[in-house]
Amino acid sequence: MNRRHFIKTNTLGGLLLAGDLVTTESPGSEMEKGKLHVKPRYYRWHVDEGEAWTEANTGHARLDWEIPVSQTALVLVDVWQRHYIKEPEERAEKIIDDHLLPLMTACRANGLEIIHAPAPEAARVHPRWINLPETAKVHDQAGEWPPKDFRRLSGSYSQYRRPTEPREAERQRLPALRIHPKAEPQGDEIVIATGDELHQYCRQKGILFLFFAGFNTNACILSRDYATIEMGKRGYQVLLVRDCTTGMESSESQATLAQTNGAILQLEMFGQYTVTSDEMIKGFRS
């Protein structure tokens, strides 16, 4: 699927490419009670009239939405109590205190649902796990492909595995991952383990807009089956709260947070949107 077709079939922004009209209220109009006013940011792969079709002439743009709070949820991905690498743990702690907790407080005060999405192994032992049955999956009648041994890199395919790290046993002895104590579910907030559970729950509740926050930007935020890319494929409008996330950086990228910023830009370029926590908090004001 090429980029243009992906955006046309997976995002509201694609309606503009398809020639349909998207209407919004004027920026100065009063927001209805029970609505969230945000201006989602995306990366525009187009240029203005009279400009050359060059990358240098592309840039960010914003939309203007008023979203029904009843159709919206904040999904917290892998908000762990620890990280085995020092820097992402320190950045996450600061983000939780400075941005995520105020956002969670505002969401709870305004009736916007919070859904907790730690890794499946942590979700399934949490007392708030929703534990919905998996929907039936269609199996390939020609057999599983790629073969199970290949996907596991076992048997005759074990030669293609990465080597075992000498300190992996030390890492495995660290305390089990769990939801950060400051971000624990409150009230009737639920915990989901899979994208299928999140999808079923959203269908039951009529949720269409998913705001994502959590860690790590260039890993689980992109790749979990309950996170941004996969839920976008399921047809939801996906927005990342970009100041409520951080990635795992390399020795080369750590100084500039290039991995984090690149993951955010990837979403903005290919059909998703971003906002800040402050925008959301202010957007509740009627």
From TrEMBL:
<dbReference type="InterPro" id="IPR036380">
    <property type="entry name" value="Isochorismatase-like_sf"/>
</dbReference>
<keyword id="KW-0378">Hydrolase</keyword>
<dbReference type="Pfam" id="PF00857">
    <property type="entry name" value="Isochorismatase"/>
</dbReference>
<dbReference type="InterPro" id="IPR050272">
    <property type="entry name" value="Isochorismatase-like_hydrls"/>
</dbReference>
<protein>
    <recommendedName>
        <fullName>Isochorismatase-like domain-containing protein</fullName>
    </recommendedName>
</protein>
<dbReference type="InterPro" id="IPR000868">
    <property type="entry name" value="Isochorismatase-like_dom"/>
</dbReference>
<feature type="domain" description="Isochorismatase-like">
    <location>
        <begin position="72"/>
        <end position="261"/>
    </location>
</feature>
